[in-house]
Design brief:
Its EC number is 2.1.1.10. It is an enzyme of class 2 (transferase). By secondary structure, this protein is α/β, with parallel strands linked by helices. It has 14 helices and 10 strands. It has a single domain, classed as Alpha-Beta Barrel (TIM Barrel). The strands form 2 sheets. It has an 8-stranded parallel beta sheet. A two-stranded antiparallel ribbon has the order 8-9. α9 packs across α10, α11 crosses α12 and α13 packs across α14. The structure holds S-methyl-methionine, 2-amino-4-mercapto-butyric acid and zinc ion. The site of 2-amino-4-mercapto-butyric acid (HCS) has 12 residues, from β4.
Length: about 350
């Protein structure tokens, strides 16, 4: 497929139109595998399940599709050739595992479509704007994710890690995922502008012909986690012709509104938002910690804040601020996604019948 710049620029707007204006992403993937009993205390984190429990990977994709997701993100966040080789896999096996992450997501989409066709799903015959279309986004986690110590939340790689180091690190993985059948590449939890630049240059140098989005993580609502400016990071994404959406993921919900406003200042591309639950990750113990002070801002079921209430409040604000793709990251669940999907449906029927 030759992805001319015109086609790239309309890819996401065409998709959003098919979805009725806004799209629903899935929620936390690795943390959902954990909720189902997977032990991710491993340098491969969620990618371990591509080897040990592919059926669970498919099950979590299906749960998010059932919850209303229009975009599912593959289990390749921490799947790298280097990481698999370190575990004793051959290079060919490592590449096959990367492809497998996309194959499982595509398989889940087929099962879901099949179920929709056979079942009595309301949206099949209503003639209303359908939320039916589903894209498979191939996840690319940062170099910091591969380090497996939570470095994607610091973005401090040290002076020895240069632009070339990062491009070389990601090059083959990106090529494989781009040719795997995925609809787009999700460069996620990007911690600094060096890595954003590496992604942009790689997409260009390798003439990657599927679209991509860049999402950044922040821990103060002002800058990305490394301290680099969100304006500079979003500008790098904005200038890259393959990038069809720019946004934020794995960041506490309380920071999202301000970050959307900042991103909107430097791009007119669609803004994609998928916050985590508001808890903080401890990379050493691989545990999530909730600060008592921030308790009321989380979406944890134990906070007493139901997902529906959260979704109704935030989706309205985040839409007003300019975002159009919404989902969840670590420790959000299919219930969060169901609530987001419902909140968006309520909004679009309110507009349709106004
Ligand atoms: C987004 S973080 C929770 C991913 C896990 C991290 N790279 C680790 O391996 O500990
Ligand atoms: N897509 C990844 C992002 C981790 S920050 C996941 O949900 O596990
Ligand atoms: Zn996350």
């Amino acid at each position: 497929m030759d992805l001319g710049s015109e086609k790239t620029s309309s890819f996401m707007s065409d998709f959003l139109e098919k979805c009725g204006g806004c799209a629903v992403l899935d929620g936390g993937f690795a943390t959902e595998l954990e909720r189902h009993g997977a032990d991710l205390n491993d340098p491969l984190w969620s990618a371990k399940c591509l080897v040990s429990s592919p059926h669970l990977v498919r099950r979590v994709h299906l749960d998010y599709l059932d919850a209303g997701a229009n975009i599912i993100i593959t289990a390749s966040y921490q799947a790298t050739i280097q990481g698999f080789e370190a575990k004793g896999f051959s290079k060919e096996e490592a590449k096959a595992l990367l492809r497998k992450s996309v194959e499982i997501a595509i398989e889940a989409r087929e099962i879901y479509y099949d179920k929709c066709t056979k079942g009595s799903w309301e949206f099949v015959d209503t003639g209303k704007p359908s939320r039916h279309p589903v894209l498979v986004a191939a996840s690319v986690g940062s170099y910091g994710a591969y380090l497996a110590d939570g470095s994607e939340y610091s973005g401090n790689y040290g002076d020895a890690v240069t632009l070339e180091t990062l491009k070389d690190f990601h090059r083959e993985r990106v090529q494989i995922l781009a040719n795997s059948g995925a609809d787009l590449i999700a460069f996620e939890t990007t911690p600094n502008k060096l890595e954003a630049k590496a992604y942009a240059e790689l997409l260009e140098e390798e003439a990657i012909d599927i679209p991509a989005w860049f999402t950044f993580a922040s821990k103060d609502g002002i800058n990305v986690v490394s301290g680099d400016s969100i304006f500079e990071c979003s500008s790098i994404a904005n200038a890259c012709k393959q990038v069809v959406a720019v946004g934020i993921n794995c960041t506490p919900p309380r920071f999202i509104q301000g970050l959307i406003s900042s991103i909107r200042k430097v791009t007119s591309k669609p803004i994609v938002i998928y916050p985590n639950s508001g808890e903080t990750y401890d990379g050493q113990s691989k545990q999530w910690i909730v600060s008592v002070l921030l308790y009321e801002y989380t979406v944890l079921p134990s906070s007493g804040r139901v997902d529906e209430e959260f979704a109704e409040i935030v989706i309205e604000k985040w839409r007003e601020a300019g975002a159009s793709l919404f989902g969840g990251c670590c420790r959000t669940t299919p219930n969060t996604i169901r609530a987001i999907s419902k909140a968006l449906s309520n909004k679009s029927s309110a507009v349709n019948y106004a």
